[in-house]
Amino acid sequence: METKTIFTGTAVSKNRDLADKIKANLKTEGTAQIVEEKPREAYEGNLPDGITMDTVKAVGSYNNEFVNAARLAVAEVAADMFTKDKELTTVQSKLGYYQSRDSVQIRAERSKVSRVPTAMEPGAERVETTRYMALTTVLDHYGTSGATLRAEISEQAANLFGK
């Protein structure tokens, strides 16, 4: 997709080359959607030299395995803690992930009442159900947070759209 360069700044310039390559594979569809012309090409076609999709898939597979194993490990340690302390309701954990500031955070709750639909149709009746050892997982990727980039874009967009 041919579009002009709109945003500038320090964080923008760090991402400009790859952004332009990604943008070249995008097209508009309808009035409010952007899609890839060639699905996955933006990601797979721009991998750094020496990195193959086989490597990416192997690392992705390991990351999935690690997160699931971390859930199991935390659940077992939390179960022991809940057994020893009947008043304890929630246990928090934080494990290191692949970049130095990244983490896998897992919250284990002794029990959690949820309202779930009885069927998948909209408006279906909801019933309360209790889940025991309810696990909530958050993956924090500080390397991809992009806070400075988002701030630069937002500030310039405010001027562009009529602040």
Task: Summarize the entry for a quick read.
This protein is α+β, with helices and mostly antiparallel strands and 163 residues long.
Give short descriptive properties of this protein:
39% helix, 163 residues, extended, 4 helices, two-stranded antiparallel sheet, 28% strand, 5 strands, alpha+beta, 3-stranded antiparallel sheet
- Which stretches are low in confidence, meaning pLDDT under 50 for 5 or more residues running? none
Tell me about the biggest sheet?
3 strands, antiparallel
Q: Topology as H/E string? A: HEEHHEEEH
C-alpha Rg (nearest Å):
22 Å
Layout of secondary structure:
Layout: H1 10-23, E1 26-29, E2 33-36, H2 41-44, H3 53-84, E3 90-96, E4 103-117, E5 126-140, H4 147-160
Antiparallel strand pairs: 1-2, 3-4, 4-5
Overview of this structure, please?
The chain has helices at 10-23, 41-44, 53-84, 147-160, and strands spanning 26-29, 33-36, 90-96, 103-117, 126-140. The chain is of the alpha+beta class. The protein has a three-stranded antiparallel beta sheet with strand order 3-4-5, covered by helices on one side. Strands 1-2 form a two-stranded antiparallel ribbon. A hairpin with a 3-residue loop joins strand 1 and strand 2. The longest helix is centred in the middle third of the chain and has 32 residues, at 53-84. It starts with 9 loop residues before the first helix and ends with a helix.
